[in-house]
Specification:
The complex is a heterodimer of chains A (234) and B (347).
Chain A: E1 2-11, E2 14-24, E3 29-34, H1 40-47, E4 55-60, E5 63-64, H2 70-76, E6 78-81, H3 93-100, H4 107-120, H5 122-126, H6 137-150, E7 155-159, H7 167-182, E8 186-190, H8 194-200, E9 203-208, E10 211-216, H9 218-223, H10 225-230
Parallel strand pairs in A: 3-8, 3-9, 6-7, 7-8
Antiparallel strand pairs in A: 1-2, 1-4, 4-5, 9-10
Helix pairs in contact in A: 3-6
Chain B: H1 5-19, H2 23-49, H3 56-72, E1 74-77, E2 83-86, H4 91-113, H5 119-138, H6 140-143, E3 156-159, E4 163-166, H7 170-193, H8 195-205, H9 207-212, H10 217-243, H11 253-266, H12 273-289, H13 294-311, H14 316-324, H15 329-336
Antiparallel strand pairs in B: 1-2, 3-4
Helix pairs in contact in B: 2-7, 2-10, 2-11, 2-12, 3-4, 3-5, 3-10, 4-5, 4-10, 7-8, 7-10, 8-10, 11-12, 12-13
Chain lengths: 234, 347
């Protein structure tokens, strides 16, 4: 579904991603793990078109999307749920969801998706007229995820969905992501919480200093000596 | 009640020329009205997209000069001996062309600077205003330079066979400005409540997130700049045909500052903000004149501005709405949520 080859991304002169190749198959749950600053988020930003790549090639459903704009990529079916529970703080929950569906024109379906989200997240339904900035951290993350769902993507990318959340909320967020995957959406997730991520996924890539150093099924990586030492705490 | 309020305000202002016979005060109302239109146009950029144009007077002045020149006619020699002669056109066409030309310059400045925006846009807009002022000052053949364009005809409306009406008297100019103000208000309120407006607010709040939900940021910023510049140009045109004389001083930085003060004190990002701020700062000099010396007037002006910003940092309109609980719960929380509560940028 998504095939990336030799992706290089730069912030000015700094090369954050140094030639990554990875692929995500339809229906798969793929994770990228790695330390802070390894280039995981940069990879996602590049796929979503927010940060145009310096070189390399990205194919989505057989079409080249390397030079596409963020708008175009979203329209093709890749949604990005950025790091840090990003919501529009001064907009209401409802308005945030509207922004998620910004490129969609199918009004009837947008409304049914909205209702579906509200049954998934009753907390958001209660707060639909409240501005997002006043929600709790967990609620904001739910909203950010919901907003990405509202784009009705084929592939949804999560960037550190557990960051800064209380442990019980983290569990809830992971369950939701599992649900999204079960509903047929392909998932690409960046996560520091390596153990949970590896347990959930079908396939995983380890990024170190802008390069992919390991890949395999989640179980393979959990058993890997290097990963045990460096990322799973022995 | 809330729905009727704007109509009541409009009614009050529509009645002003009926009971106010003092030409000086009527003049103050007209020029204030012109500047309110300009401030409203600035508010579209500053309040709704968060981009500060510190050269907004350029669009105002371009509208004024274009409109005046279209209706006066000109005869200029360009490079390589090319001579451009323009016979005077009807004044209403000057108003429309002035608006369009100002909008066109809004497009150019926006296209140039919105790829980088923020501080760069501020700088580009200031420089642009300075360049336009120098052009107006030095291209004597076209603009008469410091000698000013004089005998600018009043705006005339009418159809062949039905008759013409010229906006010569103060009363008629008052209604003309009020009409343009109402139209501008309706355009802006429609715009900000539309999909486009929501996109503008989204990109002001969190640009990279706006990009990731599929908003073409540059396109909407440029669109806002075009509408804003066009509206400022329309205000400039009204100004030129009302004063009947226009000189390069119309490009003074002071006028931009006046617009910014009107927007910020009234409440940026609110529909009524520029109107309230505009009325206050349009009339402070008028009121202060009756009891204070000229130097003291400006001190009062500054002191009052500082007082408002100190006591009501969000501006007057948001404060009033909060006070009377006019706004619904969401709007209220909106004002309490600093839009700077952006989450840190991803690495």
């Amino acid at each position: 579904m998504l095939d990336i080859s030799d992706l290089v991304c730069r912030y000015g002169k700094v090369e954050a991603v140094k030639g990554i190749s990875l692929s995500v198959k339809e229906g798969q749950f793929v994770v990228l793990i790695g330390a802070n600053g390894a280039g995981k988020s940069t990879t996602l930003r590049s796929i979503s078109g927010v940060l145009p790549p310096a070189s390399g090639r990205m194919m989505f459903e057989g079409e080249d999307i390397t030079r596409c704009s963020a708008r175009d990529i979203l329209a093709r079916g890749i949604a990005h749920c950025p790091e840090g529970r990003r919501v529009f703080p001064a907009m209401t929950v409802d308005e945030n969801l509207d922004m998620g569906a910004y490129l969609r024109a199918d009004r009837g379906e947008i409304e049914s998706d909205r209702e579906r989200i509200f049954t998934m997240f009753p907390r958001l339904a209660e707060r639909r007229a409240q501005v997002a900035g006043t929600l709790s951290g967990g609620e904001q993350q739910m909203l950010a995820i919901s907003r990405a769902i509202m784009a009705k993507p084929k592939l949804i990318m999560f960037d550190e969905p557990s960051l800064g959340l209380a442990p019980n909320i983290v569990e809830q967020v992971f369950e939701i992501i599992e649900d999204i995957r079960k509903s047929g959406t392909t998932v690409l997730m960046v996560e520091q919480n390596a153990y949970s991520a590896l347990q959930m996924c079908d396939y995983a890539y380890l990024i170190e200093a802008g390069n992919i150093v390991l890949s395999g099924t989640g179980d393979d990586l959990i058993d890997n000596e290097h990963i045990r030492k460096a990322y799973l705490g022995g | 009640m809330k729905r009727l309020f704007p109509w009541a305000v409009l009614l009050v202002f529509a009645s002003v020329p009926l009971w106010l016979n003092d030409p000086y005060l009527l003049n103050a109302f007209i020029t204030t009205g012109v500047f309110i239109v300009a401030a409203m146009s600035l508010n579209l950029l500053l309040g709704y997209t968060g981009q500060l144009s510190l050269g907004h007077v350029a669009f105002f002045g371009i509208g004024a000069y274009t409109s005046a020149l279209v209706s006066l006619g000109f005869d200029v020699e360009l490079l390589f001996g090319i001579r451009v002669v323009h016979e005077p056109w009807p004044v209403w066409s000057g108003f429309i062309i002035g608006t369009l030309v100002a909008g066109l310059f809004g497009y150019l400045v926006g296209k140039l600077s919105f790829r980088v925006r923020d501080a760069y846009f501020v700088i580009v807009s200031i420089s642009f205003a300075e360049v336009t002022r120098l052009v107006a000052l030095n291209w004597v053949e076209l603009t008469q330079g410091p000698l000013a364009l004089t005998s600018i005809p009043p705006l005339t409306l009418g159809l062949p066979g039905i008759g013409y009406f010229d906006f010569y008297s103060k009363q008629s100019n008052y209604y003309l400005v009020l009409g343009v103000l109402v139209i501008s208000y309706v355009i802006i309120s429609r715009l900000v409540k539309s999909r486009i407006g929501r996109a503008m607010v989204a990109l002001k709040e969190n640009e990279s997130l706006a990009v990731s939900v599929g908003i073409d940021v540059t396109r909407y910023l440029v669109l806002a700049a075009v509408i804003s510049a066009g509206m400022a140009g329309a205000a400039g045109s009204l100004y030129a045909h009302y004063l009947k004389i226009i000189d390069p001083d119309v490009f003074l930085f002071l006028y931009t500052i006046t617009m910014v003060i009107m927007v910020v004190t009234g409440g940026k990002g609110t529909l009524a903000g520029p109107i309230v701020g505009g009325l206050i700062f349009g009339f402070i000099p008028v009121i202060a004149r009756s009891f204070a010396a000229p130097e003291v007037q400006w001190i009062l002006y500054g002191a009052f501005m500082i007082l408002i910003l100190f006591v009501l940092p969000q501006g007057i309109v948001p404060a009033i709405e909060k006070w009377f609980g006019v706004s619904n719960e969401a709007d209220e929380a909106r004002q309490n949520t600093p839009s700077s509560a952006k989450t840190q940028d991803a690495s």
